[in-house]
Amino acid sequence: MRMTCANWNDAAEIIAVKRLKSWSNKAEKEFAVEVEILARVRHKSLLSLRGYCAEGQERLIVYDYMPNLSIHSQLHGQHAAECNLGWERRMKIAIDSAEGIAYLHHYATPHIIHRDVKASNALLDSNFQARVADFGFAKLIPDGATHVTTKVKGTLGYLAPEYAMLGKPLKAATSSALESCS
Ligand SMILES: Nc1ncnc2c1ncn2[C@@H]1O[C@H](COP(=O)(O)OP(=O)(O)OP(=O)(O)O)[C@@H](O)[C@H]1O
Ligand SMILES: [Mg+2]
Prior knowledge:
Strand order of the largest sheet: 1-2-4-3
Distance between the termini: 26 Å
EC number: 2.7.11.1
GO molecular function: ATP binding; protein serine/threonine kinase activity
Order of helices and strands: EEHEEHHEEEEHH
Strand content: 15-25%
Organism: Panicum virgatum
Mean pLDDT: 84
CATH superfamily of the largest domain: Transferase(Phosphotransferase) domain 1
Bound molecules: adenosine-5'-triphosphate, magnesium ion
Number of strands: 8
Domain Protein kinase: 1-182
Pfam family, one: Pkinase
């Protein structure tokens, strides 16, 4: 998928648009999962869905634009030289991200496991409020289940060892990915 930003309806507001580069069953599934999950959740620490398009092989998802990009961009990417992330701000970003993930695990119905928490998927708005994004790998957990065995998904280096080895997306496994974001 490719991210781009655009003016919305000629207004002064900028939006972010994710567009599928080429259509495949796998990409279509990720698109459908992301739209379904974003439509179910609303929390200050999760990126909001503004709209989507599924027409022919065209797949677009429209989000709020996050002007401070991601934790990864701030630490290692295009904003790294500006040193915007002091320790107090980092602590708030970690707590806000954890609150977003806790909402997915405990309050969303059914519960949701993100499965791809990492620094480039934790975005930052104009006030450096963290917004967890990218739900294409997420998994809905049926009521009462403590774990679901699935194919291992996510990004190598951010997977909790017990998840990578056993394929169980335990709720604690997502939280350990946050530790790798610092
Ligand atoms: N709503 C948004 N506003 C601003 N930038 C965004 C937004 N959503 C994503 N981005 C940025 O766009 C870039 C591409 O995002 P994308 O999710 O496609 O790739 P990624 O997070 O780098 O890797 P991966 O494909 O493994 O998730 C990233 O740098 C991400 O931080
Ligand atoms: Mg991403």
